[in-house]
Amino acid sequence: MSHVFPRHCHSTQPVAVGGDGCFLIDADGKRYFDGSGGAAVSCLGHSNTRVTEAIKTQVDQLAFAHTGFFTSEPAEELADLLIKHAPGDLDRVYFVSGGSEAVESAIKLARQYHLENGEPQRRHLIARRQSYHGNTLGALAAGGNAWRRAQFSPLLTEVSHIAPCYEYAERAEDETLFDYGQRAAQELEDEILRLGADSVMAFIAEPVVGATLGAVPPVEGYYQRIREICDTYGVLLILDEVMCGMGRTGHLFACDAEGVAPDILCIAKGLGAGYQPIGAMLCTGEIYGRIADGTGFFQHGHTYLGHPVAAAAGLAVVREILENDLVAQVRARGVYLETQLRRRFAQHPHVGNIRGRGLFWGMEFVADRDSKRPFDPGLGIAGRLKKAAFANGLICYPMPGTRDGRHGDHVMLAPPFISSEAELDGALDSLEHAIVDVVDSAA
Ligand code: PMP
């Protein structure tokens, strides 16, 4: 009997014993193509020796030194490298152990910044519906996923949720993409004015929406308008690139494609590529300076901030991405993946939408393409698709639609940056079989 507590209490999971490039191997020797990197984590695959060697070297040299007393060489070097390539005026890095911690830190930093700035009334956070920013209580409060929030809602701080930028479901037929994006962004200004122009501390959003919507990029102009609105009202813009950052979308940072830089940026998953748990919050020199010149102390912290071994892994990952120009490779392989997805599924009667960027793609399933009507949630399409694909040797990331019928089941693909075209073909064969087994038979 396993004493490890999985999320689904009654599930029996195979034991993972090895990793080989883009594949995971279980105790029976079965190989699984990691088509979603778990949840967009394993960007370098599972046996990158540059990263494993860096970890071994660091453990031998220095396993841990508490940031209450020391900084460390790998943390300093990684921060320098991130800042060198980061958008806008991002100038300081706060290393944590994962995505939720990065978001939690961002929310608290935004609040403290306004306090130091003499604006204690700025306490409202605005986020978007159908979003996910993590599972700790602050990050969960920010997220707009009704199902995840439901049982914890009495414990969550109040956060306003506006519409996501989700063209497939929300754009009117007679509306241009640009006009739709401006309308979606306008909800932010409306909400700021409703709450009181000087009472909002920050707006948080994911530039390309991962798990909750399934790799949905924004339309052109949306984030530029969001940036303008934030600037007008002194609201900090927090971008959550925990899933879509670190090259995943074919840009080192997803917001690079929008021509917009945030005040605070959260990254994680691809930063450690699964080799070590690491996340980071980057902030501008203005925010850092205000706190440094004020109380001089960010009132937050965790034992494993800036962990040297995690930082050494992150440093090796970022060097691997930059020195091998893997971001360009993501773009090229992304074009291949998109072409093959469209060739196989664009005409499928139950594929309503194929969208994504780089090596980050989603497909949304509908019972009816014309009306975009989702499948009955009771059919459990997403869960069954995950099982069928896994049985076929493919790890992908299916998510159920929302109960209000605004959004159907989808599947997300986020394969390693090193995937070959032949490996992607194999993954799509497995996915196609799973779709035939589950989606076609449900129709
Ligand atoms: N933000 C986003 C956009 C995410 O996708 C996730 C994880 N799926 C998180 C935050 C939370 O990250 P973690 O699971 O590392 O705490």
- The outline comes out as globular
- Count of DSSP-assigned helices: 14
The SS-based structural class is alpha/beta
Low-confidence stretches: none
Task: Spell out the CATH superfamily of the largest domain.
Answer: Type I PLP-dependent aspartate aminotransferase-like (Major domain)
Query: What is the helix content?
Result: 25-40%
CATH architectural name of the largest domain: 3-Layer(aba) Sandwich
CATH topology of the largest domain: Aspartate Aminotransferase, domain 2
The major beta sheet can be summarized as: 7 strands, mixed
Strand content: 15-25%
Question: Rg from C-alpha positions?
Answer: 21 Å
Instruction: List each distinct ligand once.
Output: 4'-deoxy-4'-aminopyridoxal-5'-phosphate
Counted up, domains total 2
For this structure, what is the CATH class of the largest domain?
Alpha Beta
Q: Walk across the major sheet and give the strand order.
A: 4-10-9-8-7-5-6
**Total beta strands:** 15
- Average pLDDT taken over every residue: 96
GO cellular component, one term: cytosol
GO molecular function: pyridoxal phosphate binding; transaminase activity
Organism: Shimia abyssi
Pfam families: Aminotran_3
